């Protein structure tokens, strides 16, 4: 029986991004050996979107109050390269990871599936 999912973030600076997940977001973790941290994520959900181009996969963190989450993370020095934008289905922004990539963050307007 499938009992979880493993998400991988590829990074130009994996050590800095691991520190961000550990120290800024405060995610509990285990050390799989040699500093390879594996983080416990909040409850998750998955959606399948249609595409007519090459398939890709994305990771978005979710929150209940985007304005408050952005304020809290900004106070910790987190950079948001795009201001929050109303998408209809939710309010979306991105977090700049220390390694240089962006990670989606949104406040859904739909019922979260992870509460089922």
Secondary structure layout plus pairing:
Blueprint: H1 14-24, E1 29-31, E2 37-39, E3 60-62, H2 66-75, E4 79-86, E5 90-96, E6 102-108
Parallel strand pairs: 3-6
Antiparallel strand pairs: 1-2, 4-5, 5-6
Give the full name of the CATH homologous superfamily: 2,3-Dihydroxybiphenyl 1,2-Dioxygenase, domain 1
User: So how many helices?
Assistant: 2
Query: How many strand elements?
Result: 6
Strand content: 25-35%
CATH class: Alpha Beta
- Give the quaternary arrangement of the chains: single chain
Backbone CA Rg: 15 Å
CATH fold-level assignment: 2,3-Dihydroxybiphenyl 1,2-Dioxygenase, domain 1
Terminal CA distance: 19 Å
Shape, please?
Answer: globular
- Secondary-structure element order, N to C: HEEEHEEE
Walk across the major sheet and give the strand order: 3-6-5-4
The biggest beta sheet is recorded as: 4 strands, mixed
What's the overall average pLDDT, rounded? 92
CATH architecture: Roll
Structural class: alpha+beta
- Give the number of domains: 1
Helix content: 10-25%
User: Could you list the spans in which at least 5 consecutive residues all have pLDDT below 50?
Assistant: none
InterPro entries: Glyas_Bleomycin-R_OHBP_Dase, VOC_core
Protein name: VOC domain-containing protein
């Amino acid at each position: 029986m499938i009992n979880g999912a493993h998400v991988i973030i590829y990074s130009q600076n994996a050590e800095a991004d691991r520190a961000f997940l550990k120290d800024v977001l405060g995610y509990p973790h285990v050390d799989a050996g040699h500093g390879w941290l594996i983080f416990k994520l909040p409850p998750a959900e998955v959606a399948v979107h249609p595409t007519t181009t090459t398939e890709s996969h994305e990771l978005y963190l979710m929150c209940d109050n985007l304005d408050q989450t952005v304020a809290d993370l900004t106070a910790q020095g987190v950079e948001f390269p795009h201001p929050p934008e109303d998408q209809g289905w939710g309010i979306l922004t991105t977090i700049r990871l220390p390694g240089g990539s962006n990670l989606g963050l949104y406040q859904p307007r739909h019922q979260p599936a992870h509460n089922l």
